[in-house]
Design brief:
By secondary structure, the chain is mainly α. Helix content is 81%, strand content 0%.
Length: 186
């Protein structure tokens, strides 16, 4: 049974990996981006297994990623758009970025739910979780957008702090202290 502390740790971990996957989706080189996203998802599953004290099976981890996220096929459209010179790379990258973050979020939620209910690497029913995956993926889109907005606000605060520091309005220690608090809140 999960405690509120372990639930919070799990949620933070899933959000962290989702944001990393969204970043990996921005890699402008088709195929490399998908490999990076799959690697992030693979590591997230491994970390969740460690957190829940469940043995990790790399073969099953890869199968879960492929079966639940459809990594090899669902993102092909965004990858093809990336091949268009100039704007295609930007549009395809942004599309794949959100999709990668959302699918990683959904995968993390499914795996955490499965493991917290006593499941292991052997007994996850992919078919049983497809509808929940789609729902979590939609939720994940909003989570990724919110995290990006939080990061943007944090960057803006840090820029303001840097200006204040450059003008001598705050000391080095004040700057470092406030900057650390801003970054910790993200």
């Amino acid at each position: 049974m999960e405690t509120s502390t372990s639930t919070s740790l799990t949620a933070r971990s899933i959000n962290k990996y989702s944001l990393i996957a969204a970043g990996a989706g921005l890699i402008p080189i088709p195929v490399i981006d998908l490999a990076a996203v799959s690697g992030v998802q693979f590591d997230m599953i491994r970390q969740l297994c460690i957190q829940y004290g469940v043995g990790f099976d790399p073969r099953r981890g890869k199968a879960w990623i492929t079966s639940l996220t459809g990594t090899a096929f669902a993102h092909v459209g965004a990858v093809l758009v990336k091949l268009i010179p100039g704007i295609g790379s930007l549009v395809g990258g942004m599309s794949l970025s959100v999709s990668a973050g959302a699918s990683t979020y959904a995968l993390g939620r499914i795996v955490a739910q499965h493991l917290s209910n006593g499941g292991d690497m052997e007994n996850l029913s992919i078919e049983q979780h497809r509808d929940a995956f789609k729902s979590y993926e939609e939720e994940g889109i909003n989570v990724i957008i919110e995290m990006r907005e939080e990061q943007t606000r944090a960057n803006e605060k840090i820029e303001e702090l840097e200006k204040m520091h450059a003008r001598g309005l705050i000391t080095d220690s004040e700057f470092n202290s406030v900057k650390a608090r801003v970054l910790a809140a993200v």
